[in-house]
Amino acid sequence: MKERRDMNDKELDDFFRKRAAQPDIPYREEDWEKLKTKLEHPASSGGTNGSGRNNNGWLIGLLALLILTGFYLGWNYLAFGPENRGIEADSLIGNIRPEAKIKANQLDSSAENAPEAGALRKQEIEISRSDGTKVSIKPLVGKLAYAANEDEPKRGRATNRAVEKLEVNAVRQTASNEVPLGFFTNEMNIGSKKVESHGILNQGFHLEPLLAYNEEYLRKASEESRKKRNKRIVEAKVDKMAQESDRLSVALSFAPDVTALKIKDIAGLGNSVGVNLEYFILPNLSINAGAMYAFKAYKGGEGYYTGYVPAPSGIMGHCWVLDLPLNLRYYAINHNLSRWYISGGLSSYLMLREKYDLKYNSYGGKSYDKQLEVRNNNRHYLDIVNLGFGYEKVLSDRLALQVEPYLKLPLKGIGEGSINLKSAGALVGLKFRW
Amino acid sequence: MSICLRYTNNRDEAVEVLNDGYMKVFLNIGQYDEQKAFTFWFRRILINTAVNYHKKNFKHNHRGLEKLPDSPALQQNILDELSYQEMIRSIQGLPIAYRTVFNLYVIEGYTHEEIAELLQISVGTSKSNLSRARANLRNMLTKSHEGATRHER
User: Which B residues, 60 through 79, put their C-beta within 8 Å of a C-beta on chain A?
Assistant: First the structure.
């Protein structure tokens, strides 16, 4: 016998063909039992013809949803974060001693009589904040106003005089109009005298001399500061709500398309109409979920294979489908009134009604037709890939127009015949932003 | 059953395909043309069912095209004859894509054009798969022969 490795193709083929024609298959009773079970319970038995449901599609969809949810929560935390709790204005009133009096100090500008400016400027004081923390602050020495009184010596004359107590009516606001953190009293030595100075510690931890104290003013200033702060908080909340509302939109869509098994077998136009919900998880990234009622028409020629045997020589199909797309959309180019985006995701087809005209060539050479109608028998969850790119034009504050050419490519066989059903179209949508 | 064994990985899968084929015969008996032989029609049903099975399971088949059994579990037939069981096992040892093309072309007599239409592949792929199937079968048969020869000694 010729060595097997030297067998040419024809010899090898004949070798296997000869063996295949002489089957020797032992009988097994259990095989017959399986068939009996199938005959008795055709719906519940397994087999090679399933419903088309793919558990992997569910898992992929669930995993994608979990990832997107985590993305959204993480972005929320980073974008908004903990609010600035700041300091409650009311708690500051208690830091102010209503009985404090302001004593104005006049700084002698002459060199010889000037107080130890360095000492003044460098002198640190310890401030207790309303929350109990202590801070060491170098006081700012600013210009001090004074009001003349009858006991005041000549103004401007550099003297080494004793500091006189003066009460002034002038009120100088704190530089920043912020709610003060605290009211302080500082003792300084100017010349031979001990001088008390009073000031307000602002939120920048700067001490500002308060030349005149007016309890009414401080309360009013605190109240105004509190109102401003509350207004800022409210505005922040409003902004946040506005941002959240901007994230959601709904669109009404219409899409003419063509459906085919092969590019040369286009049987006519189909169409779909429906709604799409869009939610922005990032400023330029949104997740879209929709429901489209679609009509698809297609045809197939020789070699078209269906789940029915014998295989027809030709087919003309009309399908009514509920298309449930789940897409991610990325807005890559953004202008004030328009933007461009790319879209990708998965669709689920719920085959509501399938109607086929099947053409057969019989073995006698004649041809005959068979009509087939199937309702609600096929479901394809997340078995169709969606690809598209679109253009959005802002029409008004809340209204926009979208145009998006797209492709739909199946991952598995679609419909009763498990066919490679491809669609291409252009979606036109009117989007309303909440 | 012999047809189904050649298209599937094992007997259990072959039984599934065969039973589905029977069901289709029962459900579509009205389409049978009595002017032709029933076995021919039934054969076509089984082939189409097996090919459909191949399509549904192709991407879930864990045996990649590059993976082949190191040596098929062929009995060392001291008579140097390839038994039917050995032949089935050698064909089942092929990757599903090669196996299907080999069966359709060599055993069933399909042309490459018909195979390409049926499996929705190109003619070139069909020819390539057939060539690889033959090479793999030749290799398996050679190993089996050499093993049997050593056993005789």
Answer: none
Q: Per mean pLDDT, which of A72-81, A222-231, A302-311, A324-333 is the most reliable?
A: A324-333
Cα A331 to Cα A133: distance, rounded to the nearest angstrom: 49
**More confident call, B18 vs A293:** A293
3-state secondary structure of A162: coil
Q: Which of A132-136, A258-262, A310-314, A388-392 has the lowest mean pLDDT?
A: A132-136
Tell me how far apart the alpha carbons of residues B8 and A48 are, in angstroms, rounded to a whole number: 12
CA distance A200 to A183: 5
CA separation for the pair B130, B125 (Å, rounded): 8
Residue of B nearest to A41 (CA): B23
Prediction pTM value: 0.38
Q: Are A333 and A342 in contact (CB under 8 A)?
A: no
Interface contact A25-B5, CB threshold 8 A? yes
Q: At what angle do helices B11-27 and A29-40 cross, to 10 degrees?
A: 40
| Per-residue confidence (pLDDT) for residue B139, from 0 to 100 | 83
Chain A hits for B82, Cβ within 8 Å: 15, 19
B30-75 pLDDT, tens digit per residue, is 777 777 788 888 888 888 888 887 777 654 444 443 334 444 444 4
Chain A hits for B5, Cβ within 8 Å: 25
Q: What is the pLDDT of residue A327?
A: 95
Using CB atoms, which residue from B19, B33, B87 is nearest to A34? B19
Rounded CA gap, A410 and A52, in Å? 12
Q: Give the position of tokens 């389409």.
A: B31
DSSP string, B46-95: HHHHHHHHHHHHTTT--S-TT---SS------TT----HHHHHHHHHTS-
Of all helices (H) and strands (E), which one includes residue B15? helix B11-27
Q: In what order do the strands lie in the sheet with A182-190?
A: A182-190, A193-201, A207-209
